[in-house]
Amino acid sequence: MTAWQVAAPGPIAGRPLRAARVPVPEPGPGELLVRVLACGVCRTDLHVAEQDLPVHRPRVVPGHEVVGEVVASGGGVGDDRGARIGDRVGIAWLRHTCGDCRYCRRGAENLCPRSAYTGWDADGGYAEFATVPADFAYPLPDGYADTDLAPLLCAGIIGYRALRRSALPPGGRLGIYGFGASAHLTAQLAIAALDARVFVMTRSAAARDLAGSLGAEWVGAAADEPPEKLDAAINFTPAGELVPAALRALDRGGVLAIAGIHLSDVPVLHYETELFYEREVRSVTANTRADGREFLALAGRYRLRVTTTPYPLTAADRALADLAADRVTGAAVLVPGR
Q1: How far is residue 263's CA from residue 261's CA, in Å, rounded to a whole number?
Q2: Domain range spanning residue 206?
Protein backbone atom coordinates (compact mmCIF):
# COMPACT_ATOMS: atom_id res chain seq x y z
CA MET A 1 0.00 0.00 0.00
CA THR A 2 1.00 3.66 -0.31
CA ALA A 3 1.88 5.46 2.92
CA TRP A 4 3.58 8.74 3.78
CA GLN A 5 6.34 8.56 6.39
CA VAL A 6 8.17 11.21 8.39
CA ALA A 7 11.47 10.16 6.85
CA ALA A 8 13.52 13.32 7.46
CA PRO A 9 12.07 15.28 10.41
CA GLY A 10 12.73 18.98 10.06
CA PRO A 11 11.37 22.17 8.45
CA ILE A 12 8.56 21.58 5.98
CA ALA A 13 10.65 23.19 3.21
CA GLY A 14 13.03 20.23 3.53
CA ARG A 15 10.25 17.75 2.62
CA PRO A 16 10.16 15.71 5.83
CA LEU A 17 7.37 13.53 4.41
CA ARG A 18 8.26 10.85 1.86
CA ALA A 19 5.89 8.46 0.07
CA ALA A 20 6.69 4.76 0.36
CA ARG A 21 5.29 1.36 -0.58
CA VAL A 22 4.80 -0.66 2.60
CA PRO A 23 2.88 -3.83 3.53
CA VAL A 24 -0.72 -3.53 4.66
CA PRO A 25 -0.53 -3.65 8.49
CA GLU A 26 -1.89 -6.67 10.30
CA PRO A 27 -4.25 -6.07 13.22
CA GLY A 28 -2.88 -7.37 16.50
CA PRO A 29 -4.92 -8.79 19.37
CA GLY A 30 -7.77 -6.43 20.19
CA GLU A 31 -7.22 -4.34 17.05
CA LEU A 32 -9.19 -3.47 13.93
CA LEU A 33 -7.83 -3.04 10.42
CA VAL A 34 -9.57 -0.26 8.51
CA ARG A 35 -9.46 0.85 4.91
CA VAL A 36 -8.89 4.60 5.09
CA LEU A 37 -11.73 6.57 3.50
CA ALA A 38 -10.51 10.01 4.58
CA CYS A 39 -7.85 11.44 6.89
CA GLY A 40 -7.70 14.98 8.16
CA VAL A 41 -4.44 16.96 8.11
CA CYS A 42 -3.83 18.41 11.56
CA ARG A 43 -1.33 20.96 12.84
CA THR A 44 -0.09 18.27 15.22
CA ASP A 45 1.03 16.30 12.13
CA LEU A 46 3.06 19.37 11.20
CA HIS A 47 4.63 19.50 14.67
CA VAL A 48 5.60 15.81 14.39
CA ALA A 49 7.05 16.30 10.90
CA GLU A 50 9.02 19.41 11.89
CA GLN A 51 10.27 17.94 15.22
CA ASP A 52 8.44 20.41 17.43
CA LEU A 53 7.28 17.13 18.96
CA PRO A 54 10.23 14.74 19.40
CA VAL A 55 10.32 11.59 17.30
CA HIS A 56 8.68 8.65 19.06
CA ARG A 57 8.68 6.19 16.15
CA PRO A 58 11.18 6.48 13.28
CA ARG A 59 9.51 6.85 9.87
CA VAL A 60 6.09 7.09 11.49
CA VAL A 61 3.04 7.49 9.26
CA PRO A 62 1.20 10.62 10.49
CA GLY A 63 -2.54 11.19 10.59
CA HIS A 64 -4.98 10.86 13.47
CA GLU A 65 -8.28 12.08 12.01
CA VAL A 66 -9.11 8.85 10.22
CA VAL A 67 -12.46 7.74 8.88
CA GLY A 68 -12.28 4.13 7.81
CA GLU A 69 -14.21 0.99 6.99
CA VAL A 70 -13.45 -2.04 9.15
CA VAL A 71 -12.09 -4.80 6.92
CA ALA A 72 -10.54 -7.22 9.45
CA SER A 73 -9.93 -7.70 13.15
CA GLY A 74 -7.33 -9.32 15.34
CA GLY A 75 -7.89 -11.90 18.03
CA GLY A 76 -10.24 -11.10 20.86
CA VAL A 77 -12.39 -8.61 18.95
CA GLY A 78 -16.02 -9.67 18.94
CA ASP A 79 -19.26 -7.84 18.20
CA ASP A 80 -19.36 -6.82 21.85
CA ARG A 81 -16.33 -4.56 21.19
CA GLY A 82 -18.55 -2.22 19.18
CA ALA A 83 -17.42 -2.66 15.56
CA ARG A 84 -18.05 -5.26 12.87
CA ILE A 85 -16.69 -5.85 9.38
CA GLY A 86 -18.11 -3.14 7.11
CA ASP A 87 -18.73 -0.61 9.88
CA ARG A 88 -17.48 2.95 9.48
CA VAL A 89 -15.34 3.99 12.47
CA GLY A 90 -13.13 6.87 13.51
CA ILE A 91 -9.50 6.77 14.63
CA ALA A 92 -8.37 9.71 16.74
CA TRP A 93 -5.18 10.95 18.46
CA LEU A 94 -5.50 9.02 21.74
CA ARG A 95 -4.68 5.38 21.02
CA HIS A 96 -3.78 3.72 24.33
CA THR A 97 -3.87 4.35 28.07
CA CYS A 98 -2.82 2.02 30.86
CA GLY A 99 -6.16 2.01 32.71
CA ASP A 100 -4.37 1.49 36.05
CA CYS A 101 -2.64 4.73 37.00
CA ARG A 102 -4.21 7.29 39.32
CA TYR A 103 -5.09 9.52 36.35
CA CYS A 104 -6.92 6.75 34.50
CA ARG A 105 -8.71 5.66 37.66
CA ARG A 106 -10.08 9.15 38.24
CA GLY A 107 -11.29 9.54 34.65
CA ALA A 108 -8.38 11.69 33.45
CA GLU A 109 -6.92 9.19 31.00
CA ASN A 110 -5.66 12.08 28.85
CA LEU A 111 -2.98 12.57 31.54
CA CYS A 112 -1.90 8.92 31.62
CA PRO A 113 1.94 8.76 31.67
CA ARG A 114 1.82 5.59 29.55
CA SER A 115 -0.55 6.96 26.93
CA ALA A 116 0.19 6.43 23.24
CA TYR A 117 -0.94 8.35 20.18
CA THR A 118 -1.88 7.65 16.57
CA GLY A 119 0.55 9.15 14.08
CA TRP A 120 3.24 9.62 16.74
CA ASP A 121 3.69 6.35 18.64
CA ALA A 122 1.95 4.21 16.02
CA ASP A 123 1.32 4.60 12.29
CA GLY A 124 -1.68 6.68 11.34
CA GLY A 125 -3.89 7.53 8.41
CA TYR A 126 -1.67 9.08 5.73
CA ALA A 127 -2.01 5.66 4.11
CA GLU A 128 -4.48 3.34 2.45
CA PHE A 129 -4.95 1.17 5.56
CA ALA A 130 -4.47 1.66 9.29
CA THR A 131 -5.03 -0.21 12.54
CA VAL A 132 -6.65 0.90 15.78
CA PRO A 133 -7.32 -0.78 19.14
CA ALA A 134 -11.03 -1.63 19.09
CA ASP A 135 -11.53 0.07 22.47
CA PHE A 136 -10.28 3.36 20.99
CA ALA A 137 -12.33 3.31 17.75
CA TYR A 138 -15.26 5.71 17.66
CA PRO A 139 -18.71 5.10 16.20
CA LEU A 140 -19.54 8.00 13.91
CA PRO A 141 -22.69 10.12 13.58
CA ASP A 142 -24.89 9.78 10.52
CA GLY A 143 -25.52 12.59 8.07
CA TYR A 144 -21.89 13.50 7.32
CA ALA A 145 -19.68 12.67 4.36
CA ASP A 146 -16.39 10.90 5.11
CA THR A 147 -14.44 14.07 4.38
CA ASP A 148 -16.60 16.04 6.80
CA LEU A 149 -16.26 13.46 9.57
CA ALA A 150 -12.46 13.38 9.47
CA PRO A 151 -11.82 16.82 11.07
CA LEU A 152 -14.30 16.02 13.84
CA LEU A 153 -11.91 13.36 15.14
CA CYS A 154 -9.25 15.77 16.40
CA ALA A 155 -10.13 19.33 15.48
CA GLY A 156 -13.64 18.77 16.78
CA ILE A 157 -12.80 16.71 19.87
CA ILE A 158 -9.92 18.93 21.02
CA GLY A 159 -11.99 22.04 20.36
CA TYR A 160 -14.74 20.55 22.51
CA ARG A 161 -12.33 19.85 25.36
CA ALA A 162 -10.91 23.37 25.04
CA LEU A 163 -14.44 24.80 25.18
CA ARG A 164 -15.11 22.83 28.36
CA ARG A 165 -11.79 23.96 29.86
CA SER A 166 -12.65 27.58 29.10
CA ALA A 167 -15.66 27.36 31.44
CA LEU A 168 -17.78 29.47 29.10
CA PRO A 169 -21.16 30.15 30.76
CA PRO A 170 -24.41 29.86 28.78
CA GLY A 171 -24.93 33.03 26.79
CA GLY A 172 -21.33 34.06 27.46
CA ARG A 173 -18.86 36.00 25.34
CA LEU A 174 -16.24 33.70 23.81
CA GLY A 175 -13.05 34.94 22.18
CA ILE A 176 -11.38 32.69 19.62
CA TYR A 177 -7.77 33.29 18.54
CA GLY A 178 -7.04 31.63 15.20
CA PHE A 179 -9.80 30.24 13.01
CA GLY A 180 -8.72 27.02 11.39
CA ALA A 181 -10.08 23.48 11.48
CA SER A 182 -10.70 23.26 15.23
CA ALA A 183 -11.89 26.80 15.80
CA HIS A 184 -14.49 26.81 13.04
CA LEU A 185 -16.16 23.73 14.59
CA THR A 186 -15.89 24.96 18.18
CA ALA A 187 -17.46 28.31 17.32
CA GLN A 188 -20.51 26.60 15.85
CA LEU A 189 -20.89 24.30 18.83
CA ALA A 190 -20.59 27.19 21.29
CA ILE A 191 -23.29 29.11 19.46
CA ALA A 192 -25.62 26.12 19.06
CA ALA A 193 -25.23 24.48 22.46
CA LEU A 194 -24.44 27.46 24.73
CA ASP A 195 -26.02 30.39 22.86
CA ALA A 196 -22.59 32.01 22.96
CA ARG A 197 -21.60 35.33 21.48
CA VAL A 198 -18.41 34.65 19.52
CA PHE A 199 -15.59 37.13 18.84
CA VAL A 200 -12.85 35.95 16.47
CA MET A 201 -9.29 37.22 16.12
CA THR A 202 -7.32 35.75 13.21
CA ARG A 203 -4.74 36.91 10.67
CA SER A 204 -6.25 35.22 7.60
CA ALA A 205 -8.74 37.24 5.58
CA ALA A 206 -10.37 34.03 4.29
CA ALA A 207 -10.71 32.75 7.86
CA ARG A 208 -12.29 36.05 8.93
CA ASP A 209 -14.84 35.69 6.14
CA LEU A 210 -15.56 32.11 7.22
CA ALA A 211 -15.99 33.18 10.85
CA GLY A 212 -18.54 35.80 9.88
CA SER A 213 -20.47 33.33 7.76
CA LEU A 214 -20.64 30.87 10.69
CA GLY A 215 -22.20 33.35 13.08
CA ALA A 216 -19.33 35.21 14.76
CA GLU A 217 -20.63 38.51 16.14
CA TRP A 218 -17.34 40.33 15.59
CA VAL A 219 -14.19 39.47 13.62
CA GLY A 220 -10.80 41.15 13.73
CA ALA A 221 -7.10 40.63 13.13
CA ALA A 222 -5.02 38.31 15.31
CA ALA A 223 -3.86 40.89 17.86
CA ASP A 224 -6.95 43.14 17.78
CA GLU A 225 -8.77 43.91 21.00
CA PRO A 226 -12.40 42.72 20.90
CA PRO A 227 -15.08 45.39 21.42
CA GLU A 228 -16.24 43.82 24.71
CA LYS A 229 -14.56 42.02 27.57
CA LEU A 230 -14.73 38.23 27.23
CA ASP A 231 -16.05 35.64 29.66
CA ALA A 232 -13.76 33.01 28.13
CA ALA A 233 -11.23 32.66 25.33
CA ILE A 234 -9.50 29.86 23.46
CA ASN A 235 -6.14 30.24 21.74
CA PHE A 236 -6.06 27.80 18.83
CA THR A 237 -2.80 29.20 17.44
CA PRO A 238 0.74 28.01 18.29
CA ALA A 239 1.69 31.64 18.99
CA GLY A 240 2.60 32.22 22.63
CA GLU A 241 2.78 35.97 22.02
CA LEU A 242 -1.02 36.07 21.80
CA VAL A 243 -1.44 34.87 25.40
CA PRO A 244 -0.97 38.31 27.07
CA ALA A 245 -3.38 39.94 24.60
CA ALA A 246 -5.98 37.25 25.22
CA LEU A 247 -5.65 37.62 28.99
CA ARG A 248 -6.08 41.40 28.75
CA ALA A 249 -9.26 40.81 26.75
CA LEU A 250 -10.82 38.71 29.53
CA ASP A 251 -13.35 40.10 31.95
CA ARG A 252 -12.95 39.50 35.68
CA GLY A 253 -12.93 35.79 36.42
CA GLY A 254 -12.44 34.89 32.75
CA VAL A 255 -10.56 31.80 31.60
CA LEU A 256 -8.15 31.40 28.68
CA ALA A 257 -7.77 27.83 27.38
CA ILE A 258 -4.78 27.01 25.19
CA ALA A 259 -5.82 24.30 22.77
CA GLY A 260 -2.59 23.38 20.98
CA ILE A 261 -0.14 20.61 21.78
CA HIS A 262 2.75 22.99 21.00
CA LEU A 263 3.05 26.69 21.87
CA SER A 264 5.92 29.07 21.31
CA ASP A 265 7.30 30.84 24.37
CA VAL A 266 4.89 33.09 26.22
CA PRO A 267 6.21 36.61 26.95
CA VAL A 268 6.55 37.75 30.55
CA LEU A 269 3.07 38.38 31.98
CA HIS A 270 2.17 41.52 33.87
CA TYR A 271 0.25 40.46 36.93
CA GLU A 272 -1.98 43.52 37.36
CA THR A 273 -3.12 43.90 33.75
CA GLU A 274 -3.13 40.27 32.64
CA LEU A 275 -3.78 37.99 35.62
CA PHE A 276 -5.36 39.98 38.44
CA TYR A 277 -9.12 39.76 39.10
CA GLU A 278 -8.87 35.96 39.03
CA ARG A 279 -8.23 35.56 35.34
CA GLU A 280 -6.88 32.09 34.57
CA VAL A 281 -4.81 30.27 31.96
CA ARG A 282 -5.54 26.57 31.38
CA SER A 283 -3.77 24.15 29.09
CA VAL A 284 -5.47 21.36 27.15
CA THR A 285 -3.78 17.96 27.01
CA ALA A 286 -5.17 15.48 24.48
CA ASN A 287 -8.66 14.21 25.36
CA THR A 288 -10.44 11.37 27.04
CA ARG A 289 -12.57 8.87 25.15
CA ALA A 290 -15.54 10.32 27.01
CA ASP A 291 -14.75 13.71 25.41
CA GLY A 292 -14.78 12.06 22.00
CA ARG A 293 -18.05 10.25 22.54
CA GLU A 294 -19.74 13.36 23.96
CA PHE A 295 -18.55 15.58 21.13
CA LEU A 296 -19.54 13.17 18.37
CA ALA A 297 -22.99 12.83 19.94
CA LEU A 298 -23.32 16.62 19.93
CA ALA A 299 -22.15 16.72 16.31
CA GLY A 300 -24.98 14.33 15.52
CA ARG A 301 -27.48 16.55 17.33
CA TYR A 302 -26.26 19.92 16.02
CA ARG A 303 -25.47 19.56 12.32
CA LEU A 304 -22.09 21.30 12.06
CA ARG A 305 -20.99 22.89 8.83
CA VAL A 306 -17.55 21.43 8.13
CA THR A 307 -15.38 23.43 5.76
CA THR A 308 -12.79 21.22 4.07
CA THR A 309 -10.18 21.34 1.34
CA PRO A 310 -9.73 17.82 -0.13
CA TYR A 311 -6.37 16.55 -1.39
CA PRO A 312 -5.54 13.19 -2.98
CA LEU A 313 -3.39 10.95 -0.80
CA THR A 314 -0.63 11.42 -3.37
CA ALA A 315 -0.47 15.11 -2.38
CA ALA A 316 -0.10 14.67 1.39
CA ASP A 317 3.18 16.61 1.43
CA ARG A 318 1.55 19.53 -0.38
CA ALA A 319 -1.42 19.49 2.01
CA LEU A 320 0.91 19.73 5.01
CA ALA A 321 2.92 22.51 3.35
CA ASP A 322 -0.28 24.42 2.60
CA LEU A 323 -1.32 24.06 6.24
CA ALA A 324 2.05 25.39 7.39
CA ALA A 325 1.68 28.41 5.09
CA ASP A 326 -1.94 29.13 6.15
CA ARG A 327 -3.21 28.38 2.65
CA VAL A 328 -5.98 26.07 3.91
CA THR A 329 -9.45 27.37 4.75
CA GLY A 330 -11.14 25.13 7.28
CA ALA A 331 -9.58 21.66 7.32
CA ALA A 332 -7.39 19.85 4.80
CA VAL A 333 -8.46 16.24 4.22
CA LEU A 334 -6.63 13.46 2.38
CA VAL A 335 -8.76 11.12 0.29
CA PRO A 336 -7.13 7.87 -0.94
CA GLY A 337 -8.04 7.09 -4.53
CA ARG A 338 -9.23 10.63 -5.23
Answers
A1: 7
A2: 157-283
